């Protein structure tokens, strides 16, 4: 569909002779709409659970990394390392 020169989409005029939907078609549309709402709710729940899992895993990784850096920083066994004095043999 092409836009009008002023950037707006053209107006569509519906003909009053459009076929009317019968009761069975309307019921079918309601059933499909209900199934679609259930599907969307399920996908939203899965997405929320995935985000929660990602957050927990990310926090765990950052916690392990921070703990590792802190524990390595506190080690001081190499700070007092002195070379053994050489014993001269006479």
From TrEMBL:
Residues 36-84 form the Cytochrome c oxidase assembly factor 3 mitochondrial coiled-coil domain. The keyword RNA-binding does not apply. It holds the Pfam family Coa3_cc. GO terms for cellular component: mitochondrial inner membrane. Component of 250-400 kDa complexes called cytochrome oxidase assembly intermediates or COA complexes. Required for assembly of cytochrome c oxidase (complex IV). This is Cytochrome c oxidase assembly factor 3.
């Amino acid at each position: 569909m092409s836009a009008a020169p002023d950037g707006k989409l053209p107006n569509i005029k519906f003909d009053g002779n459009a076929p009317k939907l019968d009761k069975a078609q309307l019921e079918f549309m309601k059933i499909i709409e209900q199934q679609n709402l259930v599907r969307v709710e399920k996908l939203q729940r899965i997405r929320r659970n995935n985000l929660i899992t990602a957050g927990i895993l990310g926090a765990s990784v950052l916690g392990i990394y921070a703990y590792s850096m802190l524990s390595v920083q506190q080690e001081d066994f190499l700070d007092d390392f002195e070379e053994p004095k050489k014993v001269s043999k006479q």
